[in-house]
Amino acid sequence: MYEEIKKANPEWLLNPKTEATNKACIAVKLSDTTTISTSITQGLLLLLANLNPINETRPISDLEALHVIEHHLPQGEAQPPLVLFPRRQDINDWYFHVHHTSRCNDDCRFHPVMLEIFGKQRCPHGDILVVKDGTGYIPDSPEFDVDCEELGRTLWWYIRSGINPVQEASERRLINVQGMRDIDTMYDRISQMLATNPGANKAKNNDITMTGK
Question: CA 173 to CA 168: how far, in whole Å?
């Protein structure tokens, strides 16, 4: 996708998700001067071109990850992050956190992308910083690097679809919690079966020994 954008728009300054170094895209900054186009052919490309990857060494702790976020946010009081689940509606265990700040007598403009997605009631002012978060978050895991193209396509999906991001997040979190409960219930049943039927556990161990697995 990035190669296509570069060929079509050589004057745009684009950065891939990561460089050929030990650094990774741990966050993406999106300016409040971002231009939005509703053009089906150019809208997504323009949105992707406005994503500014933060390529740094992955933080090794939650505290360090928080410091990275604070360092790249504009001045002001940090606000609770907005939540955007990815465009693939079968994904319930990770999401994008949209970090932003507020200032007294804030005269910064509404963020144009967030305004399209969240409306004025929840829209932040000024620049925003997007990170990946979710179940089992580990700061230095490549699993939580931000894929710029996936982020861009997710933002575009919300803009084009008009889906309510707050309701979407609530529903997916509920699905994720229910799924985890189902797994816990399954393990509890297996444990109860093994406890009431020790022979089954012994037979299982014998099978493992014979198969060498």
Answer: 9
Model pLDDT for residues 106-131, shown as the tens digit of each residue: 677 899 999 999 999 999 999 999 99
- Residues contacting 86, CB < 8 A, separation 6+: 94, 95, 96, 150, 154
Contact 23, 57 (CB under 8 A): yes
DSSP state of 110: B
One-letter-per-residue 3-state SS of 22-74: CCEEEEEEECCCCCCCCCCCCHHHHHHHCCEEEEECCCCCHHHHHHHHHHHCC
Cβ neighbors of 61 (< 8 A, separation 6 or more) are 139
For CA atoms 86, 92, 93, 96, give the dihedral sign. positive
How many helices and strands, by DSSP H and E, does the chain display? 7, 7
What is the pTM (predicted TM-score) of this model? 0.74
What is the distance of C-alpha 79 from the center of its chain? 17
Residue 59 φ then ψ, to 5°: -65, 155
The sign of the CA dihedral 100, 105, 106, 109 is: positive
Question: What is the C-alpha separation between 177 and 186, in angstroms, rounded?
Answer: 14
Find the angle CA(12)-CA(117)-CA(169) to the nearest 5 degrees.
120
pLDDT of the residue at 18: 42
